[in-house]
Design goal:
Helix content: 40-55%
Order of helices and strands: HEHEEEH
Pfam family, one: L51_S25_CI-B8
Radius of gyration: 13 Å
Keywords: Disulfide bond, Electron transport, Membrane, Mitochondrion, Mitochondrion inner membrane, Respiratory chain, Transport
Number of strands: 4
Shape: globular
Disulfide bonds: 19-53
Distance between the termini: 22 Å
Largest sheet: 4 strands, mixed
Strand content: 15-25%
Subcellular location: Mitochondrion inner membrane
Number of helices: 3
Oligomer: single chain
Protein name: Ribosomal protein/NADH dehydrogenase domain-containing protein
């Protein structure tokens, strides 16, 4: 998963939105618990923002150069699917640079 270390080259900011207690955000909470430390260690200068709001649908947002943003809904996705969505958002950032 070498792409994890490349996120800071392709993204300006990563935001994860979730509910603290809803079942629809449970996989997203688990994803954060298991992956945040590794992602932050590999990308120390990349802002990774975790925003909790009661009742919100879990989402993953990436901000790129020039204020371009892309988002993915995470409801119903497993941890592997969330990782794949994050990888795809990183690829979008690489394609925007080219």
């Amino acid at each position: 998963m070498a792409w994890r270390g490349q996120l800071s080259k392709n993204l300006k900011e990563l935001r994860i939105l979730l509910c603290q207690s809803s079942p629809s955000s449970s996989t997203t909470r688990t994803f954060i618990e298991k992956n945040y430390k590794d992602l932050k260690t590999l990308n120390p200068k990349l802002p990774i923002l975790i925003r909790e709001c009661n009742g919100i649908e879990p989402q993953l947002w990436a901000r790129y150069d020039f204020g371009v943003e892309r988002g993915v809904r995470l409801e119903g996705l497993g941890e592997a699917q969330i990782l794949k969505a994050l990888e795809e958002l990183g690829k979008v950032g690489a394609s925007l640079k080219g």
